[in-house]
Amino acid sequence: TKVRAYTRGVSVLNYHGKLNVNANGTSIANATVEKSGLELSYVGVGLVVLFAYAKGCFEAYVDTNGYSTTGAVTGTSEVRAYSIAVDTKYTAYAYAGVSAPTGGVSADIGVYEFNVNIGVAIVTTSALAGIMGGGIVGSSTAQDILVTATGDTHAEAEVQTPTIEVSGVSVAANVIIAILRSSQLALAEDVTIEQAKSLSVISNLNVL
């Protein structure tokens, strides 16, 4: 998932309205194996693997630099509006759930082997909210400038086993892995701020 909203090298002069640059997105991965209500006899289950991977890039920014096709800075711009708000808001969630049969395994049969159940959930996100570049950003009437990044990320993995006891059953391993990698940045960088009542730069990650 990639969500971006931005202005780059654009001049906005004496704009009396609100300038809002917003990027909102969601990345969800859900991998499950449903429980079976059947009892199993003479069963050998070698490997059950579930992998859920939620990945996202979420960016909202005002860049006052202009660039050539090679990426070199060609000039700067000026952005002035009644008020300016740059906001990135997103959710990323991954769930992997492995479930054994609810009926269990018949106990009157010899040996049953469940070798490995594996559930892996991974969330990887990067997020940016910013005002940047070598130009000028300001309020035409000395109002607020607000830069906000807000993220909610969560990775969950679980293995559910039967609730009844069964003799003659060998369970080698139940493995659950949950990995959460989140990078989030709110910034005002290299830019000149003029005629602002206030400048707020806020980054909130997994804040209830």
What report would you give on this structure?
The chain has strands at 2-8, 12-32, 44-63, 65-67, 73-76, 78-99, 112-132, 136-139, 144-160, 169-189, 192-194, 198-205. The chain is mainly β and 208 residues long. Strands 2, 6, 8, 9, 11 and 12 form a six-stranded parallel sheet that branches. It has a four-stranded parallel sheet with strand order 1-3-7-10, with no helix packed on it. The two termini are 24 Å apart.
Number of helices: 0
Oligomer: single chain
Uncertain segments of ≥5 residues (pLDDT<50)?
37-42, 102-110
Share of residues in helices = under 10%
Compact summary:
It contains no helices and twelve strands. It is mostly beta strands and 208 residues long. Strands 2, 6, 8, 9, 11 and 12 form a six-stranded parallel β-sheet that branches. Strands 1-3-7-10 form a four-stranded parallel β-sheet, with no helix packed on it.
